[in-house]
Amino acid sequence: MSRMRAEQEGSGAILRPGALLESRPASLRLDRVTKRYGEVVALNDASLTIAPGEFVTLLGPSGCGKTTLLNLIAGFIDADSGEIFLDGRPITRVPTCDREIGMVFQNYALFPHMSVARNVGYGLRMRRVPKTEAAERVAAALAMVKLDTMADRRPRQLSGGQQQRVALARALVINPKVLLLDEPLSALDKNFRAAMQIELRELQQRLGVTAVFVTHDQSEALSLSDRIVVMADGVIRQIGTPQDIYNQPADRFVASFVGDVSVFRGHVAANDGGKLLVTLGQAQIAGADAAYADARPGDAADIFIRPEALRLAGPGEAVIAQGIVAAQVFQGSHADIFIDTASAPSGRVLTRAPASDTAARLRIGSVVNLAIAAQEDVSIFPPAAE
Amino acid sequence: MRIILTPRLLDWVGRFVVVAILGFILCPAVVVTIAAFNAKAILAFPPESLSLRWFTKALAYEDFRTGFRNGLIVTFWASLIALGVGAGFAFVIDRYQFTGKNTLEAVLLSPLVIPHFTIGLGLLILSAQLGAGRGYVIIVLTHVILVLPFVLRSVYVSLRNLDRRLELAAASLGASPGRVMLTVTLPLMLPGLVSGWLFAAILSFNEFTASLFVTVQRTQTLPVAMYNYVREFADPSMAALSVMYIAATALLLVVANMFLGLGKVLNVENAR
Prior knowledge:
Chain A is an alpha+beta fold. Chain A folds into 2 domains: 6-252, Rossmann fold, CATH 3.40.50.300; 262-381, CATH 2.40.50.140. Chain A contains 10 helices and 20 strands. In chain A, strand 7 (178-182), helix 6 and strand 8 (210-215) form a beta-alpha-beta unit. In chain A, helix 3 packs across helix 4, helix 3 packs parallel to helix 5 (160-172) and helix 4 (131-144) crosses helix 5 (160-172). The longest helix of chain A has 18 residues, at 190-207. By secondary structure, chain B is mainly alpha-helical. Chain B folds into 2 domains: 1-36; 52-265, MetI-like (MetI-like fold, Orthogonal Bundle). Chain B has helices at residues 7-36, 53-60, 62-95, 101-109, 116-130, 136-160, 164-172, 177-206, 209-214, 222-232, 237-260, 262-265. The interface between A and B is medium-sized, with 29 and 19 residues.
């Protein structure tokens, strides 16, 4: 049934030149999905709604359940409970081959016994797309990833980046309802990865295909995604835009996992129905969200400050902490300055300064005062259990 | 006197040892090959004069002709059945978890440690008990048991080397489990299947010990016919036959190498 529809849509596409590759963006919804492996809960009660055409990243450390979630969407494994909907249709018990997904694997998983063109055409052959139309769509897909001259090569004759593109073309040529990507860029070297990120994002936006991208690299997640799903220990910790995740992390884990952050220990001055005012050194800082709703005045509080929200205090500024410069790391456009201070539970904090004015001014071992640059980028959480 | 082990000396000693070992391995085949061309009716080395008459005699000898024919029949069926059964078991052992898996594997590989004459004798007693007679069925059965471990190992290794994600990728592209098997799994297993079959065929065709028990005059395979011949005669036609044997097996390997590459056939190369 679904296969017939794919064929009709495919032959419809051929009537409109230049539209051989077009997506049918679909919504994806997970409703309280749980997966256990024996005693281990790989994914616990995960609910998630993805809009058509959205690029969503599953982000977390290894073993957080992100790959389990992707494999459940793909149908490689079965959920213990919960339901997955693709385009509003429950697919939890639909076999992988009927789900109309496109999948790109970390190692690309190209068929070594087939040429590039036959790899890309595989999904079309399985759908019994007529030969001439299939050939045109394969050519269009290869042109899309700029590999039209490589059609007759074997996968092992290609570089990692080229194999990556073949895998992408193979997944997209079938006009999948959703594109699943399992750490597809992690095997590429760093410089090339950045270029592929941009290319991937452009391609996804041009085709408008719904994409679910798995990564453990927080900077990749921040730069690629419409929304990020942060996961840890099989639980979804936060779902939000990259800005939300970065500026308003839901908990300590999210705050520390995404981006660099320094943690200071302060005290609650006031709690106005969840809006906190905390004292840190000479400064009073207002909390941006209500993650610590039950705080009472006098309670300890951990204050999470991004490096760019922290700066060396100028004259007359409210000093939040005093410390000693421990290390300076030149990063080109700026310098990372690590400062040892008693105000931080970990003993060390990080700030950034323009590279030009730091090297001369700051020496290892010199005593500096720190101030807050932007109050809105501060998060307040209950103190960590020690 | 002290010998100084310079790297140069070690290098030459090393070369000599390698050449000596290779020479030792090839020695029997070389001796037999040269003896086969002896013009006299004795198995002697080195021969005094040369002739091809023993090749003609070996090819014309009736017992060798039937032995060769019987051997082909037995090898064909035994290697084919062992391939099917062995590949099936290899697949089950690789893909499924079940209780008794280790026992199953041990039983399937046991012909490697059980002496061939034990297996031959056992099946002889069994067929006598059942009154089955000593036809081709019992010989083929014996050979299947003997060559099964080789097929099993060979196919198992190629399955282990197969990246499961290739099958998942095929499924994600719309291939049903049957088509995944036909278009991805089987083609990538092919070197393992071919090498397993090749080992099975060569071993079966050369098998002597167990075959001696389960064959009769009418069904004797070539090695058994050769044994019976050498008990009565000692002329070089045995050696001539051996040379043809070696040539045929080598030809088989050359053909396999041409189509698949020896590395793949012997499963020492990752099947890519």
